[in-house]
């Protein structure tokens, strides 16, 4: 059994959620209708946590305003709690992501990082929505990954 699977299983047990289904070293957790968090293990032995938190939409001035917000937030990680805001290469989705060495994590560490990720994601969903006066993003989960709703 891989270290990633053991960690995800322990995380699920600790947080009293059903066991997450891992496919191709990925799984996801639907936190609410507006937030789907993906966990992915890559060859670099890093656990990546990411979520689509908004869209780069609106007028060109509004898009520039969003890009400036993202740039300021990413400066030294101060506005993102050490995580990264970026644009997906295949569209105009705004992505929040973080990564940590898998060997340095246990179920409690992952739970703390997950809770901080959720707080940061919700903060930026709201900030992006307010900047465009739009509703927070609806569920845009990848269809090829089975998720668990909590």
Describe the structure.
This protein has 150 residues and is α+β, with helices and mostly antiparallel strands. It is 35% helix and 27% strand. α1 packs across α3. The longest helix is centred in the last third of the chain and has 26 residues, at 107-132.
Q: Keywords, please?
A:
150 residues, alpha+beta, 6-stranded mixed β-sheet, 3 helices, 6 strands
Main sheet strand line-up: 4-5-3-2-1-6
Helix content: 25-40%
Number of helices: 3
Shape descriptor reads: elongated
Query: Rg from C-alpha positions?
Result: 15 Å
Order of secondary-structure elements:
HEEEHEEHE
Indicate the low-confidence ranges by residue numbers: 135-145
Q: Structural class of the secondary structure composition?
A: alpha+beta
* Major beta sheet summary: 6 strands, mixed
Mean pLDDT: 87
Report strand %.
25-35%
Give a count of the beta strands, DSSP E runs of length 2 or more.
6
CA-CA gap between termini: 25 Å
């Amino acid at each position: 059994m891989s270290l990633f699977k053991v960690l995800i299983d322990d995380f699920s047990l600790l947080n009293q959620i059903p066991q997450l289904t891992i496919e191709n070293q990925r799984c996801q957790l639907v936190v609410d209708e507006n937030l789907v968090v993906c966990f992915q293990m890559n060859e670099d032995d890093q656990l990546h946590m990411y979520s689509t938190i908004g869209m780069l939409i609106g007028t060109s001035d509004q898009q520039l305003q969003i890009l400036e917000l993202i740039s300021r937030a990413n400066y030294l990680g101060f506005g993102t709690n050490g995580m990264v805001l970026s644009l997906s290469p295949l569209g105009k989705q705004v992505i929040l992501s973080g990564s940590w060495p898998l060997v340095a994590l246990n179920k409690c560490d992952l739970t703390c990082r997950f809770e901080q990720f959720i707080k940061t994601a919700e903060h930026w969903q709201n900030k992006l929505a307010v900047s465009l006066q739009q509703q927070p993003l609806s569920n845009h989960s990848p269809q090829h990954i089975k998720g668990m709703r909590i």
